[in-house]
Design brief:
The chain has 7 helices and 17 strands. The protein has 355 residues and is α/β, with parallel strands linked by helices. It has 3 domains: 135 residues, HUPs (Rossmann fold), CATH 3.40.50.620; 57 residues, Adenine nucleotide alpha hydrolases-like domains (SH3 type barrels, Roll), CATH 2.30.30; 82 residues, Elongation Factor Tu (Ef-tu), domain 3 (Beta Barrel), CATH 2.40.30. The protein is globular, with a radius of gyration of 21 Å.
Length: 355
C-alpha cells in the first residue's frame, strides 16, 4: 500500500478524507499545517486551537500518525508578500491559488512530502487518466468544485495528489461525517481567505499597505461622486462597499497614478464587460495532445470561483494567451486568474494572470 500524507484542517471536508482513506485500506499520516501569523496581534481570533483539537480527535479515532507543522515563514515569503505587492500594484490577488501552489503542494512537499507517495486534501476536485497522463478533473458537486483554486498547480504536483471527496456532493460529505460521528460533521464551512482565518481582508490590507484617500469619479460624466481610502481596497467589478447612493455602482477602472476609482451606474453598464481577456504567465497543467493553441481552440473558462463556466476560445498571441469569450463577461479584474477547461468542462487545463 502506498504511503499517503493527508492534509487536514479540522473542517468537515478534510476530516472525511481520512475516513474514506481508511475505508480504502490506506493508513494516512495526518498533517495540520500552521500558517497564521501568531506573532501578529491581528491573528488572535485565528481558529487554529479548535482546528488542532478536532484533527487530534480524528487522528486518535482512526489510529493515524499526526503532526502539527509550521510553514509560517514560507507563507509570508510566498503568499502574503505576493498579496501585499499585488494590491500595491493595483491588482486583485488570489492568495488561495498561491496557497495551494506554493504551500500545500509546494513548501509541504519540499520539507515533508518527499517521504510519501501520495498527498490527499479535502478539495472538491478529481483526477483522471488519459494515455497514461494524469489530469485535474472537476468535481461531482459543481457548486463546490474547487478546481479554479487549483488552476496554478503543476503536473509534477498533480501526479502525487488525490482528492477523496471529489466524487461526492457536499450533502454526502456531511452525511458521511455524521455517520462516522466526526466532531466536524456540522461545522460551518470557512469563508475566509486561506491565510487570514477570521481576519477581515480590508483590515489586513489597511495594516500592511495603509490608506491613501482619493476620488471616486463617474466614468461617463467625470463627476466626482465621493472618496475612497486607497485604490487597493477596490477591485474591478466590485459593487459593494463604495458608500454611494442611487446605485448600483460598479468599479470599472482604476487610475493608479492619480489614485482615482472610476465607477459606472446601472445593473449592467457596458463599461464593465469584456469579451477579450489577455492572460500573462500562462501555464498548462498538462496539454491535451490534439490541441495546438497557435490557432483558436474551443474552451470553457472561469475568471473567478463560481459554479458556471463560460464558453470561449483560447489562442496564443505573442507572449500572451488570449481568451475570446462567446459572450462579454463582467468584472474582469487584472491580477486575478483566468482558468481554462476543456470544452466538456471535465478537465482543468491551466491558468494565466489577467492583464
Amino acid at each position: 500500500m502506498k504511503k499517503i500524507a493527508s492534509l487536514v484542517s479540522g473542517g468537515v471536508d478534510s476530516s472525511v478524507t481520512v475516513h474514506l482513506l481508511k475505508e480504502q485500506g490506506y493508513d494516512p499520516h495526518i498533517f495540520y499545517i500552521k500558517i497564521g501569523l501568531e506573532d501578529d496581534p491581528a491573528w488572535v481570533d485565528c481558529p487554529a486551537e479548535e482546528d488542532i483539537e478536532i484533527t487530534t480527535f480524528i487522528a486518535k479515532k482512526y489510529g493515524c500518525k499526526f503532526d502539527v507543522i509550521s510553514l509560517q515563514d514560507e507563507y509570508w515569503d510566498r503568499v502574503i508578500s505576493y498579496t501585499i505587492q499585488s494590491v500595491k500594484n493595483g491588482l486583485t490577488p488570489n492568495p488561495d491559488m498561491m496557497c495551494n501552489k506554493m504551500i500545500k503542494f509546494g513548501a509541504f512537499e519540499e520539507k515533508y512530502g518527499k517521504d510519501f507517495d501520495l498527498i490527499s486534501t479535502g478539495h472538491y476536485a478529481t483526477t483522471l487518466e488519459r494515455d497514461n497522463i494524469k489530469f485535474l478533473g472537476t468535481a461531482k458537486d459543481s457548486f463546490k468544485d474547487q478546481t479554479y483554486f487549483l488552476g496554478q498547480i503543476s503536473q509534477k504536483q498533480l501526479d502525487k495528489l488525490v482528492f477523496p471527496i471529489g466524487g461526492l456532493l457536499k450533502k454526502e460529505v456531511r452525511d458521511a461525517a455524521t455517520r462516522a460521528k466526526l466532531p466536524s460533521a456540522m461545522r460551518k464551512d470557512s469563508q475566509g481567505i486561506c491565510f487570514l482565518g477570521k481576519i477581515n481582508y480590508n483590515d489586513f490590507i489597511k495594516k500592511y499597505v495603509g490608506e491613501k484617500p482619493g476620488k471616486i469619479i463617474e466614468l461617463e460624466t467625470g463627476k466626482v461622486l465621493g472618496k475612497h481610502n486607497g485604490f487597493w481596497f477596490h477591485t474591478i467589478g466590485q459593487r459593494k462597499g463604495l458608500g454611494l447612493s442611487q446605485g448600483p455602482w460598479f468599479v470599472v477602472k482604476k487610475d493608479l497614478l492619480r489614485n482615482i476609482i472610476y465607477v459606472s451606474n446601472g445593473y449592467d453598464p457596458i463599461s464593465q464587460y469584456r469579451d477579450k481577456i489577455e492572460l500573462s504567465h500562462f501555464e498548462f497543467i498538462n496539454i491535451l495532445p490534439d490541441r495546438d493553441y497557435a490557432t483558436q481552440q474551443a474552451v470553457k473558462f472561469k475568471i473567478r470561483h463560481q459554479p458556471e463556466f463560460t464558453n470561449g476560445h483560447l489562442v496564443k498571441e505573442g507572449d500572451l494567451h488570449v481568451i475570446y469569450s462567446e459572450n462579454p463577461v463582467s468584472g474582469v479584474a487584472p491580477g486575478q486568474f483566468g482558468v481554462i477547461y476543456n470544452p466538456e468542462a471535465t478537465i482543468c487545463l491551466g491558468s494565466g494572470v489577467i492583464c
